[in-house]
Amino acid sequence: MNLLPYSFYQRGTVTSIARELLGKRLTTVINGQATSGLIVETEAYSFKERGCHAYNNKQTDRNRVMFNAGGVAYVYLCYGIHNLFNVVTNKAGRAEAVLIRALEPVSGQAVMLNRMKADKIDRITSGPGKLTKALGISRLLNGASLLDSELMIEAGEHIPSKKIIATTRIGIDYAGTDAWLPWRFYVKDNEWVSKW
DNA sequence: TAGAGGATTGAT
DNA sequence: TCAATCCTCTAC
After folding, report:
1. Nucleotide of closest approach to A81 (CA, C1')
2. Using one digit for the tens of pLDDT, what is the confidence trace for A24-35?
3. What is the total count of domains within chain A?
4. Nucleotide nearest to A78 in CA–C1' terms
């Protein structure tokens, strides 16, 4: 076990953290059932741009945990159906986060299959709403530490920079020109990246 | 307190 | 291309 320290998250460059999270290992232990996967796709969000819930430092009941110091989870409901999992970054009061969009399953595949009611592991975690379900992440974990026993991120594989693709984010057309920021990162040629 | 809309997904 | 589905935010 080699957990990333709080200092990893509490830096001011959300895009650097989003890039470095690729290849890291996300593990959950929910109701005693352990699952884990390597992060292969992320998106960065910052209070400085319109795609972010905390744009312009707007704080609400929903996004409150984004204003915490980095190293905790921000989980919220999207479209009334999907839980989306974010890693909160930066110092307290600087609302930034990295959305985890896709994972490559490493262990606990049987648990994931059971949760997804699927019979094959293929693409079972390729999308932000799907991976939370597969790993059992719910809003109960909103604000939870990433160094705790239920939710952890460990050092995993190192992804060379030439294998990291930076491109525009998904589903935030309402953000205007900020939607064109190249703040989505994924591992080149990885079959677990979400379709788009 | 009502109405609109969303960092998605899977089926048509 | 579109519906599912419900929480959150904004305006009144």
Report:
1. C5
2. 999 999 999 999
3. 1
4. B6
